[in-house]
Task: structure prediction
Amino acid sequence: MATYVYRCRSHGDFDVRRPLGQASSAEACPRCAASARRVFTAPRLSAQPSAVTEAYDAAAASSERPAVVSAPPRRRTPSAGTPNPATSRLPRP
Result:
């Protein structure tokens, strides 16, 4: 995803994220819905790991379309290893 800058005559600059190369020459201002022209700026590219970029994209997508679950997550069961006798007297939830 690339960040494009648009300038509204009334409210100034605002950013729009679109796939690379899919920016239009005009975009509606989020405050007044007036047509705002694209401002050509230096690319906003950073050397960050792809996992960070994917996390940002996932967070942005979930804010628009949150995942709906039918039940809470299940608790993890303890491993099938040999239980430690020292922990047998601890209280259990």
Remarks:
- The mean pLDDT is 82.
- The longest strand covers residues 2-8.
